[in-house]
Amino acid sequence: MNSSEPSANERLLDPSKLPRHVAIIMDGNGRWAKKRLLNRIRGHEKGAEAVRTIVRTCRELGISILTLYAFSTENWQRSKAEITALMTLLERFLESERQELMENNIRLNAIGQIERLPNSTRRALKEIMDLTKDNESMTLNLALSYGGRDEILKMVRSIADKIKSGELEPEAITSEHIVENLYTGQMADPDILIRTSGEMRVSNFLLWQIAYSEIFVTPTLWPDFTKDEFFKILFEFQNRERRFGRA
Ligand code: IPE
Ligand code: IPE
Ligand code: MG
């Protein structure tokens, strides 16, 4: 990957204090389009370009996990036309990124209710997940038909099954049992949670995992989110004091 000259913000970063896991609520595609009197779909298309930039930037910096909220369990309530456009866009993205993911040793993983996605989307996802499964420089997690409450519900059901079958005693449940039954499994929790377009809410994203994430909300609409703004957030992250409840 040919990186251009580092910007001032990039130069300020301490490479030894980078986050391991960055999670992003990519919000504001619709508003970006509306401002320009365009169809919402155009906003999603433009948003996909911002995704490419951020994936590349994380890979260049050596961030190990990037989790992107692409479609929530609640987003199924949108119009059929918008849902179809988003799925088509996702399929196109997977196809166009295949080579870059391989060249850059990036594993693509999906979290969420994959079984609810259209057949063609599922097929495309499965293919790219199989292809990239041994890549280890970075994991790109796409949250698709993802909901934190759905994830917790599934986890409770699997633990309840183990109890029912006598495999596990209720007293023996630890947070390890919880973690291993979440979509994210053994992945480190996000160090940073970014939400674009200014909304002060988590919208059902990674409810368990963000317990101690540093939160950044920016008014920038997702299609306008740049590498340079990302560097600014990373710089601020490096200057925050994470206390984890200690004095
Ligand atoms: C985020 O942008 C993308 C998805 C939720 C799929 P939105 O589509 O939510 O954009 P706004 O919030 O309407 O501007
Ligand atoms: C969150 O954005 C979901 C994704 C970015 C995929 P939404 O636009 O769906 O969230 P709300 O409706 O503003 O809470
Ligand atoms: Mg939104």
Bound molecules: 3-methylbut-3-enyl trihydrogen diphosphate, magnesium ion
At the fold tier of CATH, the topology name is Undecaprenyl pyrophosphate synthetase
β-strand number: 6
CATH secondary-structure class:
Alpha Beta
Mean pLDDT: 97
**Count of individual helical segments:** 8
Low-confidence stretches: none
Tell me the structural class: alpha/beta
Number of domain units = 1
Give the helix proportion (percent range).
40-55%
- First and last CA, distance: 43 Å
The strands making up the biggest β-sheet line up spatially as 3-4-2-1-5-6
Biggest sheet statistics: 6 strands, parallel
Rg over CA atoms, rounded to whole Å, is 19 Å
Overview of the molecule:
This protein has helices at 8-11, 29-35, 40-61, 80-103, 119-132, 148-164, 175-180, 227-238; strands at residues 21-25, 65-72, 106-111, 138-146, 192-196, 214-218. The protein has eight helices and six strands. Strands 3-4-2-1-5-6 form a six-stranded parallel sheet, with helices on both faces. Helix 2 (29-35) crosses helix 3, helix 3 runs parallel beside helix 4 (80-103) and helix 4 (80-103) packs parallel to helix 5 (119-132). It has a single domain (19-146, 189-238), classed as Undecaprenyl pyrophosphate synthetase (3-Layer(aba) Sandwich). The chain is of the alpha/beta class. Helices cover 43% and strands 15% of the residues. Bound molecules: 3-methylbut-3-enyl trihydrogen diphosphate (2 copies) and magnesium ion (MG).
